[in-house]
Amino acid sequence: MISFLPIGGGNEIGANSYYLNFNGNGIILDCGIHPQKTGLQSLPSFDLIKEKSIDTCLISHAHQDHIGSLPFLVKKFPYVKIITTPQTRALAELTLHNSVSILKKEIEEDDFEFYNHDEVDLLIKMISYQQYEQQFELNSFHQHKESKVNATFYNAGHILGSAGILLENNDHKIFYTGDISLKNQTLIPGAKLPGTKIDTLILETTYGATDSDLLLDWNSESLRLAEEANKILNKGGSILVPVFSLGKMQEILATIWLLMQKNKLTTVDIYTGGLGTKINIAYDYNRFVVDRIDSEFEINTIPQKNYFEVSNPEEFFRDPCIVLASSGMMLENTASFNFAKRFLKQKDSAIFTVGYMETKTPGYIISNSERGNKIQLSENDEPTEVNCTIKNFKFSAHARREDLLKIVDKLKPDNIILTHGDEEAIDWIGSAILKKNKNIKVQIAYPEKEIRFL
Question: Residue 105: is its pLDDT beyond 90?
Answer without folding.
Answer: no
